[in-house]
Amino acid sequence: MTADLTAFGHPPHVTAALMMRGIFQEARSRLTAATGAQEGPMNPMPTSRPGEAPVAEADLLRWATAGSVDDGKSTLVGRLLHDSKSVLADQLEAVARASSGEGPDLALLTDGLRAEREQGITIDVAYRYFATPRRRFVLADTPGHVQYTRNMVTGASTATLTVILVDARKGVVEQTRRHAAVAALLRVPHVVLAVNKMDLVGHEQSVFAAVAGEFTRLAAGLGIPEVTAIPISALAGDNVVEPSPRMAWYGGPTVLAHLENVPVTEEAAGAPARFPVQYVIRSGGTRLYAGQLAAGELRAGDRVTVLPSGRTTTVTGVDVLGAPAESLCSPQSGALRLADDLDVSRGDLIVPAAAPPEVSRDVEAAVCHLHERPLRPGDHVLLKHTTRTVRAVVRRIAGAGRLELNEIGQVALRTAERLAFDRYEDSRRTGSFVLIDPADGATLTAGMVGATVPGTPDAAP
Q1: Would you say 246 and 260 are in contact if contact means Cβ atoms under 8 Å apart?
Q2: In terms of C-beta density within 10 A (0-12 exposed, 13-18 middle, 19 or more buried), how is residue 209 classed?
Q3: What distances in angstroms separate CA 106 from CA 234, 257, 414, one per listed residue?
Q4: Which end of the chain has fewer CB atoms < 10 Å from its terminal CB, N or C?
Q5: Closest of 166, 159, 148 to residue 111, by C-alpha
Q6: What is the pairing mode between strands 407-421 and 388-397?
Q7: Using one digit for the tens of pLDDT, what is the confidence trace for 409-429?
Q8: pLDDT of residue 92
Q9: How far is CA 108 from its chain centroid?
Q10: How far apart, in whole angstroms, are the C-alpha atoms of residue 22 and residue 62?
Q11: By the 8 A CB rule, do 449 and 424 touch?
């Protein structure tokens, strides 16, 4: 089955970010061209309040925004940064100078491209880093225009939470359905419905209830497990950082309060360990295998299997930051020492001997096509899965038999070498991949192993 986003309401575009979850440690921050500022950290690290854990020790939440054009995503992000004191004074002054109205246009804090400012829309994914005494955040502010829906998938692919904005006057529109489908396909654990512009509907509870009810029914049909609805006015700051006295009927959390308290879980509790090898380190007469643990936990003494070779050995030591450690827990990076001198190289996967993933040359997946060049059966591609890249051929595309830009569908692939992979529903890291053009290195398509397109008869409920 294939689906055009403009008709079916489902996503395109997942870049290599789909498999880079947790790897980048510094979020990029690009200020507006009008500010004249250079790329770099957007705000200083705040200090802790009495009785709270230091920010350096706080957990990290990766989240993304989504919504239709003019629903107020950039304004919400700007308001959140401004009211949480996460904007430097000189940056705020520069934005104020670039604003055309009486006050600073907070959307300019994220709409950094000249074309974005001229058109009044977000085009590129803007990554922002900020922190509160309770938690650190990496935010992906994504476009709302249908032409850039694929960019929304880029941001949501690494997110634990997605905030989908809806204009209270318009309710759930076609683009809202697309973004909900993206969240469902990528299995984002937490979805927030922010019903924006409540000031333009008189802060009426009935309007909020109608929009929240319609979206909740949509989410249930797509298999989204959790939706938190919050009535806000991003322009006025109502229920963004501080509770709104104009909506006393609402007793739930503000946007920031929810972001600070929502559970952060990379994978399901008790998930088996998955350690993609990135690099082999020679230290004296020994070898260490370095990488980032994608799931689970590994300790010295654990019996493990190296895939795809299938050789079994024992972990004799774990190093974290160059020093011995008791264990390695996802998503930590570290190095493993093994009891036996095995042939282990970049791209191999070290897993518990008692809980290995499937190893095969055949892959069935739901994919999002990212490139202007169509994907057709018979195409020869490179398949990148965790740290391993292998040659592959597209054997079958369900439905129309080809995928155009902004389409998703079900495909069958055959790889030149065996791969060890999980189902995407079990692991977003080891269940995802991207297809690359071997001629120019362009990212063509991204896929979720064993997943199905939301809304199809064989999709998970």
Answers
A1: no
A2: middle
A3: 10, 20, 49
A4: C
A5: 148
A6: antiparallel
A7: 899 999 999 999 999 988 888
A8: 55
A9: 23
A10: 9
A11: yes
Cβ atoms of 399 and 409 within 8 Å: the answer is yes
How far is the first Cα of the chain from the last one, in angstroms, to the nearest whole number? 18
Does 114 score more than 70 pLDDT? no
Distances (CA, A) of 96 to 35, 51, 78, 109, 153: 9, 36, 12, 10, 31
Segment 354-366 shows an average pLDDT of 93
pLDDT band of residue 56 (cuts 50, 70, 90) is very low
pTM, two decimals, is: 0.73
Q: What is the gyration radius of the CA atoms in the chain, in angstroms?
A: 23
Q: Name the token pair of 324.
A: 């011995």
